[in-house]
Amino acid sequence: MIIIPVNSVDPKTKERFIGISLSVWPKCGVAVFLGILLILTSCIYHSILYSYTIPTWAPWGVIAILALLSMRWRLSMSEDGKTLLRQLTIFSIAISQTPFKCNGEVKRIHLMPSGLRKNQYYILFVGPETKVSLHYCIIPEEKKRLITYQISSMFNLEMPEN
């Protein structure tokens, strides 16, 4: 899982957010999209190389696959720790946005097992009165502690106890 730190500003309220960006697709989905992209670019390349007419669907397919590969979830927290934000982005442009207001300040991050699949966890933002789940992902057991520490440090939160 590639975790990218992000900073953003809400254009309406001018509130600053710090957060992380996570890929929407699992590794197997990315591999399938890259295979399709390879076939499409090969089709375009050979059409140009041998002076054939480029199929009209090939360039649109490349654009669609690139758009799908650029889709990411952006999980952000306001600087005061009272507002959480979940955004779906394509080419770093927010397509959908879901804000969550917390009663108190968020203090730490906790990975809670979902119980649906092995090594699938909810990313919980935990405060004195609230627990908000913004995302779930599959994390190998041996990397769970490392990823928890990385996410906590990116959000500048308390480190987990266990």
Which characteristics define this entry?
elongated; 3 helices; alpha+beta; three-stranded antiparallel β-sheet; 37% strand; 8 strands; 162 residues; 29% helix
Radius of gyration: 20 Å
Count of individual beta strands: 8
Average pLDDT number: 88
Tell me the span between the first and last alpha carbons: 21 Å
| Helical segment count | 3
Counting copies of identical and different chains, the oligomeric state is: single chain
**Helix amount, in percent?**
25-40%
Series of H and E elements: EEHHEEEEEEH
Strand order of the largest sheet: 1-2-3-4-5
Structural class: alpha+beta
Question: What's the layout of helices and strands?
Answer:
Layout: E1 3-9, E2 16-23, H1 27-49, H2 57-69, E3 72-78, E4 83-90, E5 93-101, E6 108-113, E7 120-126, E8 131-138, H3 144-154
Antiparallel strand pairs: 1-2, 2-3, 3-4, 4-5, 6-7, 7-8
Helix pairs in contact: 1-2
Q: Could you explain how this protein is built, in words?
A:
By secondary structure, the protein is α+β, with helices and mostly antiparallel strands. The chain is 29% helix and 37% strand. It has helices at residues 27-49, 57-69, 144-154, and strands spanning 3-9, 16-23, 72-78, 83-90, 93-101, 108-113, 120-126, 131-138. It has a five-stranded antiparallel sheet with strand order 1-2-3-4-5. Strand 7 (120-126) and strand 8 (131-138) form a beta hairpin. Helix 1 (27-49) runs antiparallel to helix 2 (57-69). The longest helix is centred in the N-terminal third of the chain and has 23 residues, at 27-49. The protein is elongated. The relative contact order is 0.15.
